[in-house]
Structures
1.
Amino acid sequence: MARILIVDDAKFMRITLSNILKKANHEVVGEGENGKDAIELYRQLNPDLVTMDITMPEMSGIEAVREIKKEFPQAKVIMCSAMGQQKMVVEAIEAGAKDFIVKPFDEARVLDAINRVLN
């Protein structure tokens, strides 16, 4: 199964995602609260996949994806967005994200996106 890094400024969202992933036998290797955390943790942990919130303090998910992809072109990132953030989702995909999932998280959709991106 995959080694996954979860990045979201809301602890509740990190816990929710973590529970979904662990139930599907994935390993959550780290958690970050903003884009800067995401870049640092990616360098340290080299995860198979990152789930990244779009809107976060200090550095947005989109900026973080750009930075991570610059340094690690093979990085696999799935963006997490709230409803109504279509424009930002498009921007995130252009920045290098592989897929996106919408909050509130639907377990089947989350796992489907992860399987698609990993395969």
2.
Amino acid sequence: MPGREQPSGELERRWASPAGVWQRYGAQRLDALGATPSLYSFREPPLDAGDAAALLDFPPRAVVLDAGCGTGAYLPHLAARIPAGGRLVGLDFSPAALRQASRLDAAALTLGDVQRLPLDDAAFDLIVSAHMLYHVPDIEAAIREFARVLKPRGVLAIIVGTERDQVALAELFTAAGGDFSRGRYADTRFNADIAPRYLDGIFEHIEQTVVTPELVVPDAEVLVAHFEGERAVAEPALRDGVRWEAFIENVRRIASETIAREGAFRIPEEIALLRCWKAAQP
């Protein structure tokens, strides 16, 4: 596989398996447990799925796939831009996520795995893959499937961080007792910098747009809640001998000290939109 050497065993299972993904995201995104605001509600300038959708071109009567649509964050923004006669499909492997997405009434929804798409060849003009590919066990298979269901000269739009994205959050993880190399596991699986290793030879042209917002967090409990929500993957990445409870207290202490000193805990981001054109001929 392209990219860096991958950790194996428990961390791989927790990060890239369907059960692991929803163990990590379920409480935060589906059950909405707790009253602490999301870390990403403190992004400055505010950015949402609509900002990414505004950068995409939609041909007449465009047929669009949101691959890994989750609970539907991008669906209303994509639906609003599809020309008359077009169609939007949202696909995810989680029935629970699709039940949430169905409340938006923005797209036809399909249960499926991006590694084996239950979709026809050359069916789509545009595929959107947002912050998802680093969860897929076989990323190369997913890329091949995207190319299969795209029309000639169709576009794959990938939204993902670079290697420089959220470094301050990774440094907090390390300072509180985490292992840096394993804590950055998502970024070593797939990011904007290594994406061409997967895409070259399948897509004939790639354009990249990068935005650099910042998470400006005023309350340490927001960071505590963020790591608690990631416990399924974060706990196996702690240094030997560090217990989860001690790690969380370290996060709270370090973040509180930083906020008292600087007014906020700042996490610079670097997020890329990759637009990848499928070759006219295979």
